[in-house]
Specification:
Blueprint: H1 3-15, H2 28-46, H3 64-87, H4 97-108, H5 113-133, E1 142-144, E2 150-152, H6 155-170
Antiparallel strand pairs: 1-2
């Protein structure tokens, strides 16, 4: 039994009946990286003043607000797919095309600072909940990614982790490559 498995078992014993957990078939290590990335991104976001949210990011032509929206809308897209899988419904496309994605980000980047922070927080919590509630077999359901390529929902955890860690660097407020887990330093 790995340290992560032992820690998970101890947590379940402490929390008792009624608590909900990731399915045993869930990609535990990838989810750990995504959840750690969420915490790191949230910390870097929390270090920014409201005015600094509208300053340039490391992404050419994008403010930090654009990066925040891109991160939040990715979580929403994954959530929609996972919710559909859990409900046994047809899996929706990841985005409604690249032009729609960029239009949503451009509009979202005009939100007030408080709304941007809530957008990130809500999208992150919602995604964590739908991942947790996805039945084991649901992780093998195939859906389209942001580029329209098919992949199983297992992959969404690593997609999310990569985007969060890269997004923290894109905020351009002190995140360093050496802060990232080894998997994302290349």
């Amino acid at each position: 039994m790995s340290d992560l498995d032992a820690a998970r078992r101890a947590l379940q014993e402490r929390q008792g009946l009624g608590a909900r957990y990731d399915a045993p078939e869930a990609p535990a290590e990838d989810l750990r990286l995504a959840r750690l990335g969420t915490a790191y991104f949230a910390r870097k976001l929390g270090e920014l003043s409201d005015a600094a949210l509208y300053a340039p990011s490391r992404v050419s032509g994008w403010s930090r607000a654009h990066v925040i929206c891109d991160i939040a809308y990715q979580a929403r897209a994954i959530s929609r797919q996972v919710e559909a899988a859990t409900a046994g419904e047809a899996i929706p496309p990841f985005y409604d095309g690249e032009a729609g994605r960029i239009g949503d980000i451009e509009l979202g980047a005009t939100l007030p600072a408080r709304a941007l922070r809530h957008l990130f927080d809500h999208a992150a919590v919602h995604l964590n909940v739908v991942w947790r509630d996805l039945p084991g077999a649901g992780w093998d359901i195939v859906a389209g990614d942001a580029q329209g390529q098919t992949r199983s929902l297992h992959v969404t955890a690593m997609e999310r982790a990569r985007r969060l860690w890269r997004g923290a660097l894109e905020l351009d407020n002190g995140a360093r490559l050496r802060d990232l887990p080894p998997e994302f330093r290349g």
